[in-house]
Amino acid sequence: MLVSLVSLLALGASSLAHPLLDLEKRTGSGGCNADNVLRLLRATQRLDDSIAFCSQYLDLPAVTQTLPPAPTATAVVTLTEFRFTTVTETFVITETDVEFEKLKKRCTSTTTTTTSKSISTPGYILSTSIDPSRLSSACGCLTIPLATVTVPATDIPGTLTTSFSETQTETVTDWIISTETATITAPSFILASPTPVCCRSGIDEPAPFDVDDAYYRVEIPFEAEVYGLKSNLVFASINGLIWLDENSQGNYWYYHTDGDTNGAPLPLGPDDLPDVAILPFWSDLFVNGGKVQGIFYEISGNTITFEYVVSAYDSTVNDYHFTVAISNDNKVTIKYYAVLDSEDGTVAIQKKSSDAAIVFSRGEAAKVYAGLTLEFDTTAGTVNSI
Hints:
By secondary structure, the protein is mainly beta. The chain has six helices and 21 strands. Strands 7, 8, 13, 14, 15, 16, 17, 20 and 21 form a nine-stranded antiparallel sheet that branches.
C-alpha cells in the first residue's frame, strides 16, 4: 500500500499540472466513469475531504478576484487544514542457522535490514489500492472550487503567491530479526578425507533428499581385483552391495530377501546379483534427506575405501556405519562401527560363474556387531576376524 501511494503522488505531480483543462473532455458524450473509485470519493460523508485531497492531487491553480478600489486594501486568504493518518507496519523475518556439532563447521547467514517510506494521505484512500489513472480520472469528475484570493484594485501586489503547507510523515518499518538454530549431529567419519558419491559438495552438508535403492559409479586410477575380476570402475549401492565392471547388468541394486521370487538364498543367489558381488551388509538401507548420511569414499595408493553412514528403512538415525576397503590383491576388508540388528543383513562375497562363495553371516543374530573387522581373501576362499 505504501509503494502504491508514493506512485500516486508522483504521477499527480508530474503529469497533471493543469487538469482543469481536461474536465470537459472527460465529460463528453460518454460522461464520467462512475466506477468504485469515483463513488468512494463523492460519498456524502467524505465529499469535503475528497475535494480537498483532489485539489491538492490535481495541483489546481488559484483564481484571483479584483474588487473596486476601497479606502482600506485587505487581502483575504482562505486556507484549509487537512488531517492525515499514518500506518506503520512491522514485519518479522526468521532465518535458520545450521550447525554441525562434531564437524565444527557452520553454515552462516547474513541479516539485511531495510527501511521504507510512506507519504500520508486520507485514511479511506490509504486503505484502498487504487490505480493512479483511475484516481486522477475520478478526481477530475468532482466539482472542485478553486482557491480564491480577493484584493482591492489599488492594493494588488506585484507578485501574488498562494501556498499550501503539506505535512509528510516518514514511516520506518521495523524489522524484528529472529534466529532459530537447528543442530544436526554429524557422524565421526573414519576416512581422513572422504568424498560423497553424490549430490553435495562436502561432508559438512546434509543429504539434499531421501535416497532409496540407488547405486553410484566411481572411476578409480587403478584396477581393483576381486575373485580375479579386474576393473577401474567400482559401483556402490545404498543397500550394502558393491561390484566391479560396468558390464554387469540386472536389478540387483534392489534389496532381495530370501523369500523374494526374484532371489534365492546365498551362496550363489539371487540370480540378479552381479557375477562378482561384495555384500558388506546387504539389507534394505536408506539415506534420509536433511541428515549427514550417504556413501563416501577415499582413494589411497591401490586401495579404495567406501564409508557407509545409513539408516534402516523407515528409520532416521545412523543405524549402520561401516567401511569397505577394496584393493588390487583379491582382498576385501570390512570394519563395523554401528550395527542396529545383525539379523537384518547378509555379509558375503561370491563369484557365481565360478561356483565360489564366502559367506560370513546370513542374518544370524549377534554375528555382526560394532567393533568387528573382517578380512575376505578371495584367492584363498577364506574370511577371518582380525
